[in-house]
UniProtKB/TrEMBL annotation, chain A:
Keywords linked to the UniProt accession: Actin-binding
PANTHER family named among the record's database cross-references: COFILIN-RELATED (PTHR11913)
Leader sequence segment: none
Stretches assigned to coiled coil: none
Species the sequence originates in: Macrostomum lignano
InterPro entries recorded: ADF-H, ADF-H/Gelsolin-like_dom_sf, ADF/Cofilin
Name recorded for this polypeptide: ADF-H domain-containing protein
Biological process terms in GO annotation: actin filament depolymerization
From TrEMBL, chain B:
SMART domains: WD40
PANTHER family named in the record: WD REPEAT-CONTAINING PROTEIN 1, WD-REPEATCONTAINING PROTEIN WDR1
GO molecular function terms attached to this record: actin filament binding
Protein name in UniProt: Actin-interacting protein 1
Organism of provenance: Macrostomum lignano
From TrEMBL, chain C:
Family designation: Belongs to the actin family.
Pfam families the UniProt entry points to: Actin (PF00022)
Name listed for the protein in its UniProt record: Actin-like protein 6A
Coiled coil: none
PANTHER family per record: ACTIN
Chain intervals for the UniProt region annotation (Disordered): 60-82
SMART domains cross-referenced by the UniProt entry: ACTIN
Function per UniProt: Actins are highly conserved proteins that are involved in various types of cell motility and are ubiquitously expressed in all eukaryotic cells.
Bias type Polar residues, positions: 68-82
Superkingdom classification of source: Eukaryota
């Protein structure tokens, strides 16, 4: 079920750049005028902590984050996270629009691990690690 | 990191008119009892602070017994499931779980070869089963009863026999394995609560509501005679043989425990526990040199056989959820209150406790506060406020009389020489030791906190839209309000240096407001890492760290200086919400749970 | 996406949002925060002849009345105010069964009433977005669609599952929606905006069930016949527990049993919402007895203090096996068990996501202590590593109208205008095209 919100073509371009070219650390997408999903900003280098700090506390966003981590056995991995950021404290209208438009943007992004986060605790690194472990166990989603 | 240092464990669950069963460790180190969904493995040598708690059952536990080897424990619960688990390691690895009965399990017995279990209790058609501990396969039929079976025991030597005692007034006798019904003994004329074999196997004793102890021959179940005439004036709930089978202990609703010589059936000694209902005796255990009885209020009485009369040691505490907690100024004494209207004073180092006497409260203690002089102010759901002394563990003759409050109290806070009581519809301010200074109407309050200098009182309410109000003392006039939140305020606490006010909320958030900054938020971090309602908060003495406890069973310690760092202790009280917290010194945090346990944690901040 | 010429253009005129439930029907305008009206999902139906007889106050001749009866349709009454008036021969009839629209004639009359009296607008000027039961049948969706276009000539139509709207409104595209309403409690898993149908678990334990429990308790153990307001002319203050002293109102003849039953049900709902509470641990008689009592004064003056029953009556939601008097050892699932079973029926990969996004909605969930007890019971049976999070809005409006609010926002979105099933598309492709437009 979708809201009809459309996706700006630059979204796909930027996604390719991060997926294939690994040119950025993360990209933040937002919905403009209640009608289109576009790129809000691109950050080339950032620590995960700084990224979490930069998230708006009262507004929803979609983020693609190129996450690099080390496994317990020392192996290095890199996964693309698609984060649907919808803080509980947001206005209901904002939550509704982002939730019902998620499908539209998700279809343009292949090979990502999806994270639904409704507050800081769900986007915290330890939570992400658990999620990656679970996704790794049963194959990418 | 939070490491558990001590546990002032919950008492056994008791119920009026019902016998409970204790388990004894063949190695003589621990004894077992149950409460809530847990099995308590309490140390016999140091029962005050050492207890291991196993919380893996999904419904209320009914009984737990060691296997004769001491390597496993079998525990049964209210849904009819039995779990067999390892005792040697802390993880208590589960060996097996079987669903054996259609109702609550009341007792179980291991065969002496550690291979088989007989499990009895309630059910629809089946009241008992005999199974192999390894596979759950049936090794006989426990039939012959028409009502729930209360007790079961097994003859420890060959030829093997088993006995069961039931609400249908009958004691059944089985031969096996495989266990076959052999004989029905109907000498009892009322509920039979307990049946136990003497360790020598020569005879077994049974007792029940009639107050009579009857003896039967161990191999044939032939009726041998009666001990006492009758043994007790009230119903007998439990029996325990001495390890060499020469003596028998019986405990009764007549509030006594009696020691008998089995050979000549004479009375050797008697212990009297008092004359209130709480002194009724509902269980007993004889484990090597230790003899323990349980009173209806859950107290564990350690008896000295050489000195009949009074128990040598009484371990008290709580058997119901702990709802209130505070400490003395020096942290050496803890005061806890529970849903059963009891207040207990604890020594935080040794775990020794005394119950406060003379209280007028009739139901759940809602909150309590201890002032600088050690006076305890407790408020209960029956709208009463009472003043007692923590040093004496009693309501003193010179204390103010219990007071009836105008609306139901919800929280209490003490600072300087003032005590604030928040009630649903009003606030009361008292000056030590109990004179009312001011009262003001309020609406839907849930919590309050006095600043350390006593000059400001912060109050929070149930209405998500109502702000946290700051009132001046003693007039209780509003100075300011703080409204950064969107949910019910559940707890408030000022840091000891008075610089910050912390608030916990029903929507899992924890926020800290800086006093100097006009009560603006002290940091922009979102402290929302609990997954359910925040119940309580406590600041460390140096005001740098805040511990919070939640409905999600975990404790989190937050750092004011490094707001992004936190220490999370998940399942600090397994399957139980954390009800209250307090720091007794720079590194020790005390938590209380709905599981009636008090835990003392050693906290290392790096 | 769809053929441009047939798309609904999207005027400035607002859409109407309709959320149909077994207990009430919520309707209002898209873009608003709350529904304009919350109508009971019942209609009062008077056979025309009785209405005429009352109005004319004359005896009606036998032969004529027969003919008149056949010609005149029954007089229908909608809305709480109208239904509450005691009228001779007025039967109360429900619109829905099992959460879905059952009586289409009555439903139509309700829609007429809504447009004319509550919303006060012309149906052909406003697109209509409707919510549907999470297990709605294809036939019923198409029928509603047909009704909307044929009778009401709406310019555009859309239909969406209630759980999806509620889930989105809480900021989630994936979650377990636990809807505790009058007709029962339903656990509906939603994954990426779609209901996982094979995961739906339905339990009859809901508001109506609690009302029945309360009714049994009052009649059997208190020997109290609940007397609704419509029968009371005046009452005198009596002591708590004392025999009520009241004067019966002079009522017209022919008040139906169904009307009386509805009035009693409304009364008991009020008692339930005032008095009932969920205890935070498995019920223990001794503990419940120490809790403070809550008084209730019935319309006919009977004054009663509710003690441990306040907690005992709600315990059946969490432990039906032991707390349902009629069927001991019943195999009915408790609310937490219903929720767990629903999650367990879904793919193992999405279960953790469902458990960490449980959305609680519905009026019955507003019972004091309900969400805390639910949290406790779920935790008790969950693995220690499971991340469990319950989301229950503190606003009672958001809890009761979650689906309506979701529909309201959707219907007001500019971009949504291209998603509507337009009149032209309907005329071209027929009602079965709705499956494509509203998946």
């Amino acid at each position: 079920m979708a809201s009809g919100v459309s996706v700006d073509p630059q979204v796909e371009e930027h996604f390719k750049a991060i997926k294939i070219g690994h040119r950025y650390r993360y990209i933040v997408f937002h919905i403009v005028n209640d009608s289109t999903i576009t790129t809000e900003r691109i950050v080339e280098e950032s620590s995960y902590e700084d990224f979490v700090d930069s998230l708006p506390r009262n507004d929803c966003r979609y983020i693609i984050y190129d996450y690099a981590y080390t496994l317990e056995d020392g192996g290095k991995r890199e996964k693309l996270l698609f984060i649907h950021w919808a803080p509980d404290v947001c206005k209901i209208r904002c939550k509704m629009i982002y939730a019902s438009s998620k499908d539209a943007i998700k279809h343009k992004l292949r090979g990502v691990v999806e994270i639904q986060a409704n507050d800081i605790s769900e986007v915290a690194e330890d939570c992400i690690r658990d999620r990656l472990k679970a996704a790794g166990a049963s194959g990418d989603k | 990191m939070l490491t558990l240092e001590k546990i002032f464990a919950s008492l056994p669950k008791t119920e009026r008119g019902k016998a409970i069963v204790l388990g004894g460790d063949p190695k003589g180190e621990n004894f077992l009892y149950v409460n809530g969904n847990s099995v308590f493995i309490r140390s016999l040598k140091d029962p005050f602070t050492k207890c291991d708690v196993y919380t893996q059952h999904s419904t209320a536990t009914g009984v737990a017994k060691y296997s004769p080897s001491g390597f496993y424990i079998a525990s049964g619960d209210a849904s009819g499931k039995v779990r067999i688990w390892d005792t040697t390691q802390a993880e208590h690895v589960l060996k097996n779980e079987f669903h054996v009965l259609g109702g609550a399990i009341r007792d179980l017995a291991w065969t002496s070869d550690n291979q088989r279990l007989i499990i009895v209790g309630e059910g629809r058609e089946k009241f008992g089963v005999a199974i192999l501990a390894d596979s759950g396969a049936s090794v006989g039929e426990i039939i012959g009863h028409s009502k729930a079976i209360n007790s079961v025991d097994f003859k420890p030597q060959r030829p093997f026999r088993a006995v069961t005692a039931s609400e249908d007034f009958v004691v059944c006798f089985y031969e096996g394995p495989p266990f076959k019904f052999k004989k029905q003994n109907d000498e009892h004329t009322n509920f039979v609560n307990v049946v136990r074999y003497a360790p020598s196997g020569e005879l077994f004793a049974s007792a029940g509501s009639t107050g009579r102890i009857l003896l039967h021959e161990g191999k044939t179940s032939e009726y041998l005679g009666e001990i006492g005439d009758p043994a007790h004036k009230g119903g007998i709930y439990s029996l325990a043989f001495s390890p060499n089978s020469d003596r028998l202990l019986s405990v009764s609703g007549d509030k006594t425990a009696r020691l008998w010589n089995v050979q000549d059936k004479s009375l050797i000694g008697e212990w009297s526990f008092g004359n209130t209902i709480n002194d009724m005796q509902v269980s007993c255990l004889w484990c090597n040199d230790y003899v323990i009885t349980v009173s209806l209020d859950g107290s564990l009485n350690f008896l000295d056989l050489a000195n009949p009369g009074k128990p040598t040691e009484v371990i008290g505490g709580h058997s119901k959820p702990i709802t209130a907690l505070d400490r003395s100024a020096d942290g050496r004494t803890l005061v806890t209150g529970s849903t059963d209207a009891s207040l207990v004073i604890w020594d935080s180092a040794s775990g020794r406790m005394r119950r406060v006497t003379g209280l007028a409260h009739k139901n759940q203690i809602q909150a309590l506060a201890v002032d600088a002089s050690g006076t305890v102010y407790s408020v209960a759901m029956d709208d009463t406020l009472q003043v007692s002394s923590s040093a004496d563990a009693a309501v003193r003759a010179d204390s103010p009389a219990p007071r009836k409050l105008d609306s139901q109290p919800v929280d209490a806070s003490a600072a300087a020489d003032l005590v604030a009581i928040a009630c649903r519809q009003h606030l009361v301010l008292l000056r030590s030791p109990g004179a009312v200074v001011a009262t003001v109407a309020a609406s839907a309050l849930t919590c309050c906190a006095l600043s350390p200098d006593g000059a400001t009182l912060a109050v929070g309410g149930a209405d998500a839209k109502a702000p946290i109000r700051l009132l001046s003392t003693p007039q209780l006039a509003e100075i300011q309000s703080v409204a950064e939140h969107q949910a019910e305020v559940t707890a408030l606490a000022y840091s000891p240096d008075g610089a910050n006010l912390a608030a916990g909320f029903a929507d899992r958030y924890v926020r800290v407001y800086s006093v100097a900054n006009g009560y603006g938020l002290a940091n922009t971090e979102e402290w929302c890492f609990h997954t359910a309602r925040v119940n309580c908060l406590a600041w460390t003495h140096d005001s740098k760290y805040l511990a919070t406890g939640s409905l999600d069973c975990s404790i989190i310690v937050w750092s004011l200086d490094s707001p992004r760092k936190r220490i999370v202790a998940k399942n600090a009280h397994p399957m139980s919400q954390i009800t209250k917290l307090t720091w007794i010194d720079a590194n020790h945090l005390v938590s209380t749970g709905q599981d009636s346990n008090i835990k003392v944690w050693n906290v290392s901040f790096d | 996406m769809t053929s441009g010429g047939n798309m609904y253009g999207g005027d400035e005129v607002g859409a109407i949002v309709l959320d149909v439930g077994s207990h009430t029907i919520r309707a209002g305008f898209a873009g608003e925060d709350m529904p304009k009206t919350d109508l009971p999902a019942y209609v009062g139906s008077c056979p025309a002849i009785s209405a005429a007889a009352v109005e004319s106050a004359q005896p009606v001749d036998g032969a004529d009345s027969g003919a008149a009866k056949q010609q005149q349709p029954p007089r229908l009454y909608h809305g709480t105010n109208q239904i509450s008036v005691p009228r001779p021969g007025m039967e109360i009839q429900a619109l829905c069964k099992d959460g879905m629209i059952e009586d289409w004639d009555l439903f139509e009359s309700t829609m007429d009433y809504l447009y004319k009296h509550e919303l006060q607008c012309a149906s052909e000027e406003h697109p209509l977005i409707a919510s549907e039961a999470n297990w709605n049948t294809k036939a019923k969706r198409e029928k509603l669609c047909e009704l909307a276009f044929e009778k009401y000539r709406v310019p555009a139509f859309f239909i969406c599952k209630q759980a999806v709207l509620a889930c989105f409104a809480n900021g989630k595209a994936t979650g377990l929606v636990l809807d505790c309403g009058a007709s029962g409690t339903h656990a509906v898993p939603v994954f990426d905006g779609y209901v996982v149908s094979h995961g739906i678990m339905r339990s009859p334990l809901g508001g109506d069930f609690l009302v029945r429990q309360l009714d049994n308790y009052l009649r059997q153990q208190h020997k109290l016949e609940p007397v609704p307001v419509y029968r009371v002319a005046s009452k005198t203050r009596v002591e708590e527990g004392g025999l009520p002293v009241w004067e019966a109102k002079k009522l017209p003849q022919g008040i139906t049993q169904s009307y009386h039953n509805l009035m009693v049900k409304n009364l008991l709902q009020d008692v339930a919402s005032t008095v009932l509470q969920c205890i935070d641990e498995p019920y223990d008689q001794a503990t419940a007895e120490t809790m403070p009592t809550v008084p209730y004064e019935f319309p006919h003056g009977y004054n009663m203090d509710f003690g441990y029953q306040r907690f005992r009556l709600t315990e059946a939601l969490f432990d039906p096996a032991n707390f349902l008097p009629e069927s001991p050892g019943s195999s009915m699932l408790s609310v937490p068990h219903c929720l767990r079973t629903s999650v367990e029926r879904c793919d193992v990969e999405i279960r953790q996501s469902l458990y960490s996004s449980i959305v609680v909605v519905g009026g019955t969930s507003l019972l004091k202590g309900f969400t805390d007890r639910l949290q406790r019971d779920l935790t008790a049976r969950a693995a220690a590593t499971l991340r469990l999070k319950l989301l229950a809005s503190t606003s009672s409006g958001e809890r009761r109208f979650a689906s309506w609010i979701g529909g309201s926002i959707l219907g007001s979105l500019g971009t949504f205008q291209q998603m509507w099933f337009s009149k032209q598309e309907y005329e071209e492709s027929g009602k079965s095209f709705i499956e494509k437009k509203c998946p």
